[in-house]
Amino acid sequence: MLQNGSFEAGWVDMPAGNTLNQAPKYWRLSWVNPGESLYDAPNDLAQAYPECVHKPAHLLPPEERPNGATPLILDGTHTYKIFSSVAYGAQLSQEVGNLAPGDDYRLKVPVNCHRQRPGDDPYAAEIGVWINGQGRWLNLDELPDRQWVYPVVVGKIDEAGQVEVVIRAKSKSGGFDFFIDFLQDELLPAPDPVDYVVTVHLLPQDATGEEMLQVAQEAFAKRNTLLYSADDAARLVAPGLPGSAVHVWWPERWTSGDIVAWLQGKGVDKVVWRPEAPPEPPPTLSAKEFVGLHVQRACGSGGDLERALLDYHRERPPQAVKVLNDTGYAELLAAEGFEGNTVYRHVLSVAWQQNLLSMPKRQAVEWFYAQQAANLERFPFDFVGGLNEISGAGELEAFVAFEVEWIRYLADRGIKATVGAWSVGNPDLALIPHVAVLAAAAEAYGAVMDYHWYVPQSPWCPFDQVAPGTTKTWYEIFWPDYHGRWARMDEILVQEYGIRVDWCFGEYGAVAIDQMSRHMDPGAGWRHQDCLNADVERLIALMQRDVAQLQTTRAFQEGRVKWANFFTINVDDDWPFFQLHPVDLQRLRQTL
Predict the structure, then answer these.
(1) SS3 content of the chain, % helix, strand, coil (to 5)
(2) Entry pTM
(3) How far is it, in rounded angstroms, from Cα 375 to Cα 392?
(4) Torsion of CA 205, 208, 211, 215, to 10 degrees
(5) Distance between CA 418 and CA 450 in Å, rounded?
(6) Calpha distance 19→357 (Å, rounded)
(7) Average confidence (pLDDT) per 10 residues, the chain, 592 residues
(8) Beta carbons of 550 and 564 less than 8 angstroms apart
């Protein structure tokens, strides 16, 4: 069937810039020309022609030859290498014919990735395999450095009895070398249809004996089938009558991609998620690690506030610091050796934010970037924020479109974004489909979803007091719809959309809430008499309560909560009821 799967049959030289690429016999070789988009990533452009060559054993170091400690040749005397020091894309393809229409064609493509540069962007380089258009990319999270992985792709043979095999490699930064060798294919005959409903219970490969017995009891009672093989499950269920289903137990423990999407791609119409494995004990977290600062115009004064800030960061460096509209404090911290994340936000008026939402989104993001370009070029911030606290039903769609374009625009410039920036209690959960669009883009580009975590707090509802007539504290009562709205959104995104996005809290603190209307006063922060009345000890106790609550969330337990920024530090005292003074910073530094 597939010809020259081990690259031993020779090649044809093809000019590529200043080099010669080698097209393996029976394969078609193509590449992305400099300046063109890297396949399905329109904002990632190739910078040079890749190098695509055969590597014979005698040109490899001893440990990388056949039978070496880390071999790069799995069969024969050659392996195939695709690489470049800058952004590139390359493709191998081959048609396989004389097959039985309707059958499945299965191909295993061993891949080895060498990382020549550090970095934590899983999408810096990817390789993918497709059979008649069915397949997917593998990113760096699935490609450990200098180790073989063995992705398997299955595709339907078309009516002409053919399949097209396509292998693509790309890197948006260069410095990632791909090796492939010893491709193996087989035919999987299409199963005959059956006239009954088929139910299969599918266990992950790492299921324990105790877990197997748990599932077996249910399967036995209903005379269902229990399997460990996803391929076998698809073969049995796909030809069954409507209602046939695969019950996937502990689906998150399937590590080779989205098991649900894979089964559906194999013709399984119904996939049922079953209870997940008990979560591991959550990692420990202290308020010291959780609480960073939100800094406005605190630099250059040389006064007590600036000295208190520097002392704070020297003794308890947080996960992130956020600055507004200038680079001064970020530069000051960098000189001190600060290693946490630096986050930048350019503040616009409400009117200007509305103007941007009415503009074509590309024009809007270009204007927005131009307002802050000088600062972004002056200091290499880790993250840059978008627009602020927009959540109304009538404008959310336009806001999401802007933020998605902003994510991509910054990514083209090597910058990650924080997006959303929803104020506490927003948006309405009925608008989650719009939120999911933004979350999907954030997940794809490594952006972080921002939520402003303000705890409702007043003398009539102390956070640690049990509410009259209930068994819950006021903190717990307000959690679902106020400071915990983000966690409810995250659960929906995971369960209904399969999206796992990172979160930060770009503004964090306490705000007074009215007893009758339950409306929060956006100006009444922790210093206000209707909030915590400037009681820093109560503030510290609230922060510690927040950390305890945070540790119960799925996002935190999965390592997707990144930082919080306490609002605010400001030499001009623009937000007097939210301000941390030097004495407060000293107390936080000593206590948290």
Answers:
(1) 30, 30, 45
(2) 0.56
(3) 30
(4) 40
(5) 6
(6) 48
(7) 94 89 95 93 92 95 92 95 94 92 87 86 92 89 90 86 94 92 82 79 88 89 88 85 85 75 80 68 69 81 83 81 90 87 93 93 95 94 95 90 95 94 93 93 93 96 94 96 96 89 96 94 96 96 93 90 92 88 90 79
(8) no
